[in-house]
What does this fold into?
Amino acid sequence: MKKPNIQVCPSILSADFGRLAEEAGRIEKAGADAIHVDIMDGHFVPNLTLGPRALAAINRATDLFLDVHIMIYNPFDYIEELVKAGADRITFHFEATEDVEDTLAFIRKCGKKAGLAFRPETSFSMIPKYLTQCDLILLMTVSPGFGGQKFMPEVLEKVRLTREACDLRRIRQGGIVAEGGISLPPFDIQVDGGINLETGKECVKAGANVLVSGNYLYGLPDLAAGVKSLKSL
It folds into this structure.
């Protein structure tokens, strides 16, 4: 089986908020695939972080893909503002709205990639029906809301099941993935929370290909070396 192309998205949540433009440039220089931007409302999760104006400032400072993870209720109401601020992919939580399908469709209508996130305790059974409606599934490996939490290994089984579900809906022909005559790229499965070399390796083995890392990367003396090490898993 071909080794997956691992994408690394440093979380700017762990950066110096007083130097966001410089931090964005640092992440870009480190060779990351995207900047992961967490936006929280203080209700869906018990924390407040960055908002659309900060996102716009980050966007002005970098050409990197902006991977925006919103932990807010009623996410549909914020999509247009986040698009204007520069989001390239918007990932919202399944648990935060009853309008999951409409919100996914609207993000795509705005010309952006759509992601759907799931808390660790949410059953895998909720995931398969949305695989054709989004571009990425984010499986939280900690409880959303704060950085620096301990990785939850029980989520690895959900990663494995999600990857299996993705593979079931594809027909492989000579290395080309096709469904209904349409070529499909490998589906992106992202993990976020407590990701380092050890836990990242386990996630990749289970089927994840997009790694979000904050405290681990920012705790290293060389951010670029850390990004490179995760990409090589």
